[in-house]
Amino acid sequence: MRGRSAFAIAMRAPDGSIKVHTEPLGSLYRSRVASIPFLRGVLLLWDALGLGMRALTISANTQTGEGQKLEGPALYLTLAASLSLGVGLFFVIPALLGGIVEHALLPPSLSAGSGTLAVEGLAAAGASLLPWAGNLIEGGTRLLFLIGYIWAIGFMPEIKRLFGYHGAEHKTINAFEAGAELTPASVAAFPVEHARCGTAFLLTLVLISIVLFTAMGPMSMLWRIISRVLLIPVLAGIALEYIRWTARNLDKPMVRWLIIPNLALQRLTTRVPDDEMLEVAIRAFQSMRAAETARAG
User: Fold this and answer.
1) pTM score of the predicted model
2) Mean pLDDT along residues 8-33
3) Which residues does 227 contact at the CB level (< 8 Å), separation at least 6?
4) Are 22 and 8 in contact (CB under 8 A)?
5) Close Cβ partners of 33 (under 8 Å, ≥ 6 residues apart)
6) Domain definitions of the chain by residue range
7) Could you tell me which residues are beta bridge partners of residue 104?
8) Any residues with CB less than 8 A from the CB of 76 and at least 6 apart, and which?
9) Three-state DSSP class for 48?
10) Does residue 128 register a pLDDT over 60?
11) Containing H/E element for 266?
12) Partners of residue 21 on adjacent β-strands
C-alpha cells in the first residue's frame, strides 16, 4: 500500500503470522517534478515499478527465510530487463506485424518512405483506409496481446493467489474511501474493482496508443519501431493523467461510462480474496497510514 509519504508491505509468513515492512517514499514524490503534469507520470511510474519489484522480492524472501535484498543496481537492472521484455512483446512485435501488413497492402507509390499520406491513386471505395490498415492491425494485436497475456498467466496458481491479494487491496481501499470499518467481514462486501488500478492504466495506455499511432499514418519499418519505443513515455504520461482525471470525476455519469472497460479488465487481474488475504491487505493499509501519521507528527 502506497500513500503520499510512505508505503507498507504486509506478508503472510510461513508460520501464519503477518509480517509488515514500512518505508518512507523517496524524495521524488516530494519534489517539484511530482507536480508537473505528464512529466510526473513517467517518473512516478518508473519509481512505482521499482516499488512493486521490491515488494515482490521482500515477500519472496519472507517466504524462503532468505535475507537477500534486491536494491540499487541489481534492482534497476532487473527492472530494465523486465521493461525490455514488455516493450518487445507489447510494442515491437505488434509494430512488426502491422508494418508487414501495411507494406503488403499499400502499392509502391504509397510506400511510407516517401513521407506522404496521399491516397489519390486509389479508386476503390474503401481504399482511403489502406494507409492506416497496418496501424489498426498493430493496435488490435497489441490489445489482444495484453488481454491474452493477463488471461493466460491467470491460470498459474501463484498468479491466482497474487490476483487474490490484488482484489483484497482494492476492497480495502474501497472500504476506507466509503468510511466503512476496516475488518475482514466489512471489507469483504466491497467490489474488487477500483478506478485507480494499474490495470486501468495499462488498458488506457494501449487504447491511446491505437489512436496516436493510427493517426501517424504509414511509415518505414525502422521508423515505425523507433517511434513506438520513443513514444512510450508520452503514452504513459497521457494515460496517468487520464486515470487521475477519471478518479477525480467519478461522480459524473460520462466518466462512469468511460471507465467501464478499465473496470471490466480488472476482472482478469483480481480474484475474490479470502479472509486471510483481507487481513493482510488491511494490515498493510493501516501500517501505511500509521507511518504517514508518524512522519507528519
Assistant:
1) 0.82
2) 85
3) 213, 216, 219
4) yes
5) 39, 40, 43
6) 79-296
7) none
8) 50
9) helix
10) no
11) helix 260-269
12) 9
Sequence length of the chain is 297
Q: What proportion of the chain, given as a percentage, has pLDDT over 90? A: 46
| Burial class of residue 154 (count of CB atoms within 10 Å of its CB; 0-12, 13-18, 19+) | middle
What would the grid cell of residue 166 be?
A: 490484488
CA distance 277 to 162: 10
The beta-strand segments (E) located in the chain are: 6-12, 18-24
End-to-end CA distance of the chain: 20
Would you place residue 138 in the very low, low, confident or very high pLDDT band (cuts 50, 70, 90)?
A: very high
Model pLDDT, residue 194 = 93
What cell numbers appear for 143 in the block? Answer: 490489445
Name the grid cell of 121: 491513386
Instruction: Judge whether residue 284 has pLDDT over 90.
Output: yes
To the nearest 10°, report the CA torsion of 94, 263, 83, 77: -170
- Structure letter (DSSP) for residue 16: S
C-alpha cell at 21: 515492512
Residues 6+ apart with CB under 8 A from 213: 135, 138, 139, 227, 228, 231
Question: How does residue 121 score in pLDDT terms, banded at 50, 70 and 90?
Answer: very low
Yes or no: say if 246 and 255 are a contact pair by the CB < 8 Å rule: yes
